[in-house]
Structures are given as C-alpha cells and as structure tokens.
C-alpha cells in the first residue's frame, strides 16, 4: 500500500471516531416535483414536526397559572428566579434576555416553573485541500444547521431539570455527513440536579443523566462546539461548591450521534471517571495575582484504542494540575500552566506519557482597543521507540480540538506547539483575533494524529520533524446578547508546500 493511500485510510472527520466516507452523494435533481421527498427530507420534516409538537405541549402546560398541580402553589413557588447548576462554559447558557422575553410574550409561561430557551446556528464552511489533499475532490463547501430547544424547570427548591432537544443537518456537501454533523432529532441534554446538603459552608448536589460539561481549561474533557453536535455524556456527577473551593466526582460514557432520531446511546467501549478539585482565585491564594489552582485525577478506558505503535484495550490514569490567574499592575499579565502525567496499559504495553501546556499573555489596558499579545507553548509526548514495550503517546481523552486553531486539523498528541496570538477589542461588541501557530513532531518515530486522536500519517512515513504552520484570523461580533456572528479564516502551510489547506468558516447564532 502506498504512503498516500495508507494516510488517507486513517484520515478521520473532525472530532469523530469514525472514518469519513469519501464516496460522493447523488445530488437532488432540481426538476423533481416539490411533493417528491427524499429520505433525508422526510427525516427533517419529522424532526421539525416533533420539535413543534413538544413546544406546543410544553406551552399548554405552562399556560396554566399553577402548572400541573391543582393545589394552591403560592407558598411553594420560590420568590427568586432559579438558575440551573453550571454544566460547563456553554456559550448559549449566557442570559439571552431578548429571546427569553420574546418567548414569554408569545407563550404565557410561568418563569418560576418552566423556562424555554433555544439556539439557531447556521455555519458555512469552505475547504480547499481537505484531508491534506489526499482525498478525491478534497475541495468542499457546505452549510451546517443546528437547532436547540431547551426546557428548564424547578418543581421543588431542591430539584431542577433540563431537557435540551437538538436537530442538526448538513447541506450541500459532496461527502456523506459525519455522525457529529447530522442527526435529525436527539436529546443533547436530559438530566436532573438535586441538592443533597446546603449550608453556609457550601452546596452538595448530584447531577445524573445526559449532560454537556467541560473540566478546567478543556485539556482533557471539553465541549465539542466546532462541529454541528456537541459532545454529551451519560454520567453521574457529585458536586460540591463553596466560596473558596469546588470539587466533583464523576463517572460516565460519551454518547454516539448520527442516528435516525432518538436512538443515541452511550459508548459501551469507553468510560471516563475521576475527581476534579478547584481552589478558587482569591485573597487567600498562594499563587501570583491571587490565582486559582486545579488538581485532578481522571481515569479512562477504551476497549478499541488505536495508536501508531499500539492498539487494543487501553486503561489510562491521568494526574494533572493547573495554575491560572492574573497578576501585575492592573492585572495586565495572565497565565495558565497545566502539566499532566499519564500511566496505565494498552494490550501488553505499559503507558508512560505527559504534557505541559504554558500560556502567557499581556494586555495593554491603557491603550486604545486594549490589545493583548499572547504566547503559548505546549509539549505533548509521543512514542520514541516502537519496540521497547512502552507507549509514550499522550491521550487527551475528550479534548477541545480547537486548542491549536479553530480549524481543528490536529489532535494533541506527539507534538511541540508554538502559538503566537494577538487580540484587539475594535469596538465594544467587535473583537479581532489573530493567530500564528507552528507545529513539530515530538518524536520522529510516532505518527501525526488527527481528531479524535487517530494516527493519520504513520511515524515511519517520514523522518521530518517540522509539520507546518497555520495563520488564523477571526472576528467575533455580538450586537445583542442573543446574536453572535463569527467569521474565521485559516491558512495551513505544511512542510510539503504542494498541499496547502485553506478553510473559511462563517457562523451565525
């Protein structure tokens, strides 16, 4: 098998554990009568009908001033608006005051008992030389559409629930849609949170069900927000939160998407468990600028793991720490330092891997547009000897694959990464972000990995260490709390200049 064919077989779709099918899809004939619907079109109509039906049902329930109870609820209704416990830095969890007000005007909801919110995201992507130029017809452009509809309720002071329905489609692509880009209707989240203990010392709660969450900086567990469907976990989490410290214990599996509707199940071959502790930033902190400190242990099992020099049943244990905060006169400096070590086994080999992530930035707060200059340098181990019975390739579990750039071309494994970036606050609602990223292989004996962590180019295919560099330009405009258009452009300059990659992404949500 040739080098190009071997690499092409290992290329995976963005953040997806399954190979992208490269065969073309037949395009719909524009001369067909409107009444003739393809199977995908039927799925879309069913999804929309189901979402509308649920919306109407919830509205009817909410119209009754006392909810579903026939008893007088005046004493039972809390006097202050409730908020669900945070499930991670999901952008859409920010208060969408205008959208919420529109819904409350259109539907006479009782916000003390039920709240309805949602999101519509349209994302256009245009690729030149996708799949590193190895795939046939690698130039491609398409539209990704995502709709979320969320129902939040608090039937009691100690209990809150969230049901979030999603519908995601891909239009116009010459490739079959990835399972993380198209699913007609699914539960993105469906969980309950219950307060177990609450006092002046803090709150102890349990969250169980389907959840979207991230941990810390998202180095090992992050929200998959770039593709059309976020990452969800069917999990149980025990959480404690107080003013100086927060911690959580968790256990769960990530959810598979891409079915025909409401047929999503957790991955039975993968399991995540562990504990995450945060010492919050404040006056009592021993770190520079009263910064914060995370300490964590995360265990992981994958019965079908694949690396360049090992495969099989993987059991891995990660021990990490993260120091972060602001310091200097006027908090001009910001930092984030995160070392992680890993031990375990895969097949008959032992695992010994590590990473160190370093982020340092300086903001000119007194200057116009408050420019920020940043430097990021990562060391991510790779396997140096295929025959020593030891795997040294780092596994980032469920990372934010936009860690290097929003194009999410590479997975964090077997890399040295140097990132130069700058930000300008052009106006109060408009921000400009520029990035120049350089990548080298940590070990010439290990592969180049692509999301979600699969080897794309075998280590023995080349002795080159330098992979290439990418330049990114992004504008983020937020005219209202409920609207946020984002525009990205990436240019990838590989060590082999014959296969440059260009990506344009426009997002409106």
Helices, strands, pairings?
Blueprint: H1 3-10, H2 39-63, H3 97-106, E1 114-128, E2 140-156, E3 159-171, E4 183-199, E5 202-211, E6 233-241, E7 245-254, E8 270-279, E9 292-306, E10 311-327, E11 333-346, E12 349-363, E13 372-380, E14 390-391, E15 415-427, E16 430-441, E17 448-450, E18 454-457, E19 466-477, E20 485-494, E21 501-508
Notes on the structure:
34% of the residues are buried. The protein has one domain: Beta Barrel (Porin). The chain is built from 3 helices and 21 strands. It starts with a helix and ends with a strand. The strands form 2 sheets. It has an 18-stranded antiparallel β-barrel. The longest helix has 25 residues, at 39-63. Mean pLDDT is 79; it is low at 1-37 and 55-98. The chain is mainly beta and 509 residues long.
CATH architecture: Beta Barrel
Helix content: under 10%
Report the sheet with the most strands, covering strand number, pairing sense and barrel closure: 18 strands, antiparallel, barrel
Distance between the termini: 44 Å
What is the overall number of helices? 3
Q: Looking at the structure, what is the overall shape?
A: globular
Structural class: mainly beta
The radius of gyration is: 24 Å
Total separate domains: 1
Strand content: over 45%
CATH hierarchy, class: Mainly Beta
- Arithmetic mean of pLDDT: 79
At the fold tier of CATH, the topology name is Porin
Order of helices and strands: HHHEEEEEEEEEEEEEEEEEEEEE
Low-pLDDT runs: 1-37, 55-98
Quaternary structure of the protein:
single chain
Total strands: the figure is 21
């Amino acid at each position: 098998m040739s080098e190009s064919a071997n690499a092409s077989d290992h290329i995976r779709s963005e953040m997806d554990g399954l190979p992208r099918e490269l065969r073309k899809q037949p395009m719909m004939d524009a001369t067909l009568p409107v009444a003739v619907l393809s199977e995908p079109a039927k799925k879309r109509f069913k999804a929309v009908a189901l979402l509308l039906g649920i919306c109407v049902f919830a509205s009817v329930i909410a119209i009754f001033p006392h909810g579903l109870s026939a008893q007088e609820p005046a004493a039972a209704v809390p006097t202050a608006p409730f908020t669900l416990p945070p499930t991670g830095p999901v952008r859409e969890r920010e208060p969408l005051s205008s959208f919420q007000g529109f819904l409350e005007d259109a539907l006479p909801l009782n916000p003390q008992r039920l709240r309805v919110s949602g999101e519509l995201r349209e994302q256009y992507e245009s690729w030149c030389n996708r799949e590193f130029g190895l795939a046939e017809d690698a130039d491609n452009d398409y539209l990704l559409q995502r709709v979320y509809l969320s129902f939040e309720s608090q039937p009691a002071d100690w209990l809150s629930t969230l049901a979030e329905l999603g519908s995601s489609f891909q239009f116009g692509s010459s490739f079959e849609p990835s399972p993380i880009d198209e699913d007609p209707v699914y539960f993105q989240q469906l969980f309950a949170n219950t307060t177990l203990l609450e006092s002046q010392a803090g709150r102890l709660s349990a969250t169980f069900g389907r959840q979207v969450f991230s941990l810390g900086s998202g180095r090992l567990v992050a929200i998959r927000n770039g593709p059309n469907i976020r990452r969800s976990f069917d999990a149980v989490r025990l959480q404690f939160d107080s003013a100086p410290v927060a911690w959580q214990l968790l256990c769960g599996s990530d959810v598979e998407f891409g079915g025909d509707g409401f047929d999503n199940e957790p991955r039975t071959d993968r399991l995540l468990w562990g504990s995450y502790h945060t010492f919050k930033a404040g006056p009592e902190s021993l770190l520079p600028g009263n910064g914060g400190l995370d300490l964590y242990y995360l265990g992981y099992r994958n019965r079908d793991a694949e690396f360049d020099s090992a495969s099989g049943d993987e059991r891995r244990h990660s021990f990490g720490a993260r120091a972060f905060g602001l310091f200097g006169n006027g908090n001009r400096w910001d930092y984030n330092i995160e070392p992680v070590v890993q031990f375990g086994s895969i097949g008959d080999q032992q695992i010994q891997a590590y990473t160190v992530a370093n982020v340092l930035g300086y903001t000119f707060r007194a200057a116009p547009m408050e420019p920020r200059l940043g430097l990021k340098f990562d060391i991510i181990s790779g396997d140096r000897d295929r025959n020593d019975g030891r795997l040294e390739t780092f596994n980032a579990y469920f990372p934010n694959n936009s860690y290097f750039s929003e194009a999410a071309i590479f997975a964090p494994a077997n890399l040295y990464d140097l990132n130069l970036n700058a930000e300008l606050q052009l106006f109060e609602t408009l921000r400009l972000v520029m990035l120049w990223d350089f990548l080298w292989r940590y070990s010439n004996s290990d592969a180049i990995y692509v999301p979600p962590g699969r080897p794309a180019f075998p280590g023995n295919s080349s002795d080159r260490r330098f992979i290439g560099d990418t330049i990114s330009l992004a504008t983020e405009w937020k005219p209202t709390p409920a609207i946020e258009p984002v525009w990205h452009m990436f240019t990838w300059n590989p060590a082999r200049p014959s296969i440059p990659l260009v990506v344009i992404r426009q997002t409106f949500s």
